[in-house]
Design brief:
mainly beta; Immunoglobulin-like; 5-stranded mixed sheet; globular; disordered N terminus; Ig-like_dom_sf; Ig-like domain-containing protein
Length: 142
């Protein structure tokens, strides 16, 4: 299906890395307006929403969300995931709008490893037709 005209599709993903058991904070800059702040996994359908709020701060389980900005001009959305596990690796979306279906989204990828990351390793892509999985601290690009 065609993406919604209100959906922000990014040509590249923003990557975040984390270590199992530690925390990671994802930051998204959103230029849209709206009351609803959303953080979700995968395609951001109703069952994918991990945390959402109409306020500027919220916390649910391992997820906390903080919004800094205006109602009209957009702003920065920060989401922290605590106690990372391997299953936290994957694609996520930050969203801002009036409704889940019409929000503007920014895509991010989180990679969780068992140990430390090599700071010289970088992952980039000019398209989104790939997946990243983490097994025993090794990255597998498919």
């Amino acid at each position: 299906s065609e993406p919604s005209t209100n959906m922000k599709v990014c040509p590249t993903l923003i990557f975040y890395s984390g270590i199992k058991g530690e925390d990671v904070t994802v930051k998204c800059s959103l230029s849209s307006s709206g009351h609803l702040k959303i953080f979700c996994k995968d395609k951001c359908e109703a069952d994918d929403v991990l945390i959402q709020t109409t306020g500027n701060r919220a916390e649910t389980g391992r997820y906390s969300i903080r919004y800094e900005g205006g109602f009209v001009s957009g702003g920065d959305l920060s989401v922290t995931i605590t106690q990372l596990t391997s299953s936290d690796s994957g694609q996520y979306r930050c969203g801002l709008g009036e409704f889940l279906s019409t929000a503007s989204y920014e895509d991010v990828e989180i990679m969780v490893a068992d140990g430390e990351f090599d700071e010289n390793v970088s992952v980039s892509s000019s398209h989104r037709d790939f997946t990243i999985s983490v097994t025993d601290g090794e990255f597998l690009l498919k």
